[in-house]
Task: inverse folding
């Protein structure tokens, strides 16, 4: 079995490495001398951890401790974020031995010591999933930009991400039954993100999932606290902001490219979302 060491992937002066991998197919069984977090953005497959099977899809986190063996069997092209870090990344050298044996021996995570051992698979659904995705995207950008203080920023972000994961572990360990409504939503969110620029309706999602438009509408409100329409708007505004900041496209073409033929509506929603017009944001680049 292949054994990966920190030297294979992690820079000695960083103690953490973050990768976003697309079009991934499979991974043979291996183990490693560092801690690994895997977040599934899209696709589906099976993860084997110490010989135990876990089916994974969008919203799932895999927490892989030092020395654990695992491999991926992917059903379709998979996209995921991979966070690798050494046991002492979040603490001082004196705690490294305890951290390598039991992550919850660290003073930082004493509140989660009732977990005893991390659960390999943690499922994020609803609003919690979107919050984790935003945090992971921020971590990836911080790691790649490497601006002054990025190590401290990553240490703080990683602590926050782990606390979110451990809280969800606690809930998951108390009740292993996840409502079908939560497992229904991740593929629908991916469908929205792939088709947001066109006319997309609840009827379209119903065809994708075989649930009724009413049921899907209620699921959005119950799980996220906002409506289907509001989610589509969030996706469109996020992409519009990116294009305003990263391209020289005209505001009108950006408006059309994210699904708004009505320029007035686009300007109103943009200012409502970001507190300024697209032109004002562009001047701040």
Result:
């Amino acid at each position: 079995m292949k054994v990966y060491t920190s030297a294979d992937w992690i820079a000695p002066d960083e103690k953490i490495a973050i990768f976003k991998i697309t079009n991934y197919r499979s991974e043979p069984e291996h183990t490693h001398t560092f801690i690994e977090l895997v977040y599934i953005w899209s696709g589906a497959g099976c993860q084997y951890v110490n010989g135990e099977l876990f089916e994974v899809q969008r919203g799932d986190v895999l927490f892989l401790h030092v020395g654990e063996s695992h491999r991926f069997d992917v059903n379709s092209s998979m996209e995921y974020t991979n966070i690798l870090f050494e046991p002492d990344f979040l603490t001082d050298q004196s705690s490294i031995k305890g951290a390598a044996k039991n992550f919850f021996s660290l003073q930082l995570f004493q509140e989660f010591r009732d977990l005893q051992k991390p659960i390999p698979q943690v499922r994020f659904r609803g609003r919690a999933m979107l919050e984790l995705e935003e945090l992971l995207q921020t971590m990836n950008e911080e790691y790649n930009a490497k601006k002054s203080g990025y190590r401290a920023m990553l240490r703080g972000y990683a602590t926050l991400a782990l606390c979110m994961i451990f809280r969800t572990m606690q809930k998951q360990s108390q009740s292993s039954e996840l409502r079908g409504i939560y497992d229904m939503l991740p593929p629908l969110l991916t469908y929205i993100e792939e088709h947001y620029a066109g006319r997309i309706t609840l009827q379209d999602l119903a065809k994708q999932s075989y649930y009724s438009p009413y049921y899907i509408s209620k699921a959005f409100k119950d799980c996220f606290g906002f409506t289907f329409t509001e989610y589509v708007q969030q996706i469109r505004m996020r992409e519009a902001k990116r294009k305003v900041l990263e391209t020289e496209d005209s505001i009108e073409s950006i408006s059309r490219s994210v699904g708004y033929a009505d320029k007035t509506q686009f300007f109103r929603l943009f200012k409502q979302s970001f507190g300024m017009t697209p032109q004002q944001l562009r001047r701040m680049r």
Summary: Residues 2-174 form a domain with the Jelly Rolls fold (CATH 2.60.120.10). The longest strand covers residues 16-32. The longest helix spans residues 150-174. The chain has a mean pLDDT of 85.
